[in-house]
Amino acid sequence: MKFLNFLRGETFARGIHPPQNKHTARTPIRRLPYAEHLIVPLSQHIGKAPQPIVRVGQEVVRGEPIAKTSDWLSVPHHAPATGVVTAIELRPTARGPWAESIVIRPHAGATQEDLWGVPRDLSGLDASEILQAVWDTGMVGLGGAAFPTHAKLMVPKQAKVHTLVVNGCECEPYLTCDHRVMLEKAPELVLGMQLAMRATGAVRGIVGVEDNKPDAVAAIQAAINATQADNLFVEAVPTKYPQGSEKMLLMALFGVEIPSGALPVSLGMVMNNVGTLAALGQLLPAGQGLTERVVTIAGPGVSRPGDYRVPLGTPISFVLEWAGVNKNAANACQLVLGGPMMGQSVASLDTPVTKGVSGILVFQPEDMADRDGRATYPCIKCGECVESCPMGLNPSTLGMLAAKREYELMGQRYHLGDCFECGCCTYVCPSNIPLVQQFRIAKQVLREKASAA
Q1: In three state form, how does the secondary structure of 23-60 look?
Q2: H or E stretch including 52?
């Protein structure tokens, strides 16, 4: 169903069309076995880290709470395997700094069935009880942002939500985990949508899916038809990067623009990722916590690429070994967590898979040689970055200001805060200027100054 079709064009302005490389889209999700040790960082989401409630030497079962919190912008963690807690200590993370982590050694022969949880009847729960149930699952945004889901679903008192928007675009090259979830878990996705609508008060829900995934659109439509719900919809939107950004998807679906500095709730909408809601549709009825997630393992350096259901805390080295990456070769490869446009490189193979890891991409040295070998030249004022920026910013000017460390001017006059670091400008720049990396540094400096003030 087309909403407000007369107000919108085909899609948002500008953007780019990088090679899709969705080679794993037709491969069913496979389950990864347990590694010898699972490392669960306490800080693996936006917000305050929870506190451990287990001790070294304690036996735990899969799904049992191992860290709890009373801070609203935080979530609990659950044991990803039945086993023994062997350590609570600092371990490396993808962000660089070491973080306090709970290390669990799975029992030999332990199954991947969740053994902790009490099935619940959701029919009589009100909005606040659903939010509490979501909080108890430890769910965060599985699209990569890792923002606590219960906090995102909590509508401010002064706001009123009428529409739940579900992001199924998955516009990043290589990534197909959301695609496979939409195909294999469509009924759970629909149930998760209905629960999220009850929590937010939304009267309709719509899934936006890029039109390069017609099978996913068909699977979701079939699941909606099975429920006979007349307030749930799925719509295909044109394939273009970064269609998966909430501002871009809302423009494509409804022809509306989120004001600078505002959130979708200011327009009466709440947005969630398809993987997040599909997981909620499975966990909430069972009264269970999040212990695993689907991760795309792909890239030229992977011999067995695919989408894998990975226990949280699994070291990347184990994931790569299972996906056919030689350990010695992996040390020479470049690893990216997430997609190639917005993902982050990781240096240590001991880094574990966390709730926000949607993909692990492996690039061999020869794959990166052409781009890494390119020199950086001064800006030639070609305007390619301006033509590609979906937010309508001037990355060229921002880049020149960043080179002079004029960070305050970037934020106050040139709207640096509206940049969501999609990487379009860096991708198209013929001078090979690392624009988005410069913007990240500028924003970090401004955040540090603001916190010190």
Answers
A1: CCCCCCCEECCCCCCEEEECCCCCCCCCEECCCCCCEE
A2: strand 51-52
The neighbouring-strand residues paired with 292 are 311
Q: What is the DSSP letter of 403?
A: H
Cα(56)–Cα(359) distance, rounded to whole angstroms?
31
Two structure tokens written together for 278? 């599909």
Residues of the chain predicted below pLDDT 70 = 1-10, 328-332, 369-373
The answer to whether 223 and 183 have CB atoms below 8 angstroms apart is no
In 3-state terms the chain splits into helix, strand, coil percentages (rounded to 5) of: 30, 20, 50
Q: For residue 300, which of 200, 209, 368 has the smallest C-alpha distance?
A: 368
Q: Going by DSSP bridges, is the β-strand pair 306-311/30-31 parallel, antiparallel, or unpaired?
A: parallel
Q: Percent of the chain having pLDDT more than 90?
A: 79
Closest to 282 in 3D by CA, of 419, 142, 126: 142
Q: Report the alpha-carbon distance of residue 186 to residue 180 in Å, rounded.
A: 10
Measured in degrees and rounded to the nearest 5, phi and psi for residue 40 equal: -105, 100
Q: Which H/E stretch holds residue 84?
A: strand 83-91
- At 221, phi and psi to the nearest 5? -65, -40
Q: With contact defined as beta carbons under 8 Å apart, do 22 and 176 qualify? A: yes
Q: Which of 374, 375, 409, 372 is nearest to 394 (CA)?
A: 409
Q: What three-state secondary structure class fits 426? A: helix
Helix ranges restricted to H, 9-83: none
* Tens-place pLDDT, residues 324-379: 887 766 666 788 999 999 998 887 888 999 999 999 999 888 777 666 667 899 99
- CB neighbours of residue 19 within 10 Å: 8
Amino acid at position 255, single letter: G
CB neighbour list of residue 263: distance below 8 Å, 6 or more residues apart: none
Side by side, the strands of the sheet bearing 344-346 are 30-31, 306-311, 292-298, 359-363, 334-337, 344-346
Q: How many Å apart are CA 328 and CA 301, to the nearest integer?
A: 12
In the prediction, which pLDDT does 374 show?
Answer: 78
Got the DSSP string for 200-259?
HT-SEEEEEEETT-HHHHHHHHHHHHHHT-SSEEEEEE---BTTTSHHHHHHHHH---PP
Residue 32 in 3-state DSSP?
Answer: coil
Q: Is 69 helix (H, G, I), strand (E, B) or coil?
A: coil
Going through 96-140 in order, the beta strands assigned E by DSSP cover 99-106
Count other C-beta atoms under 10 Å from residue 370's C-beta: 8
Cis peptide before 242 (omega within 30 of 0): yes
Mean pLDDT, the chain, whole residue set: 92
Give the β-pairing of 269-273 and 232-237: unpaired
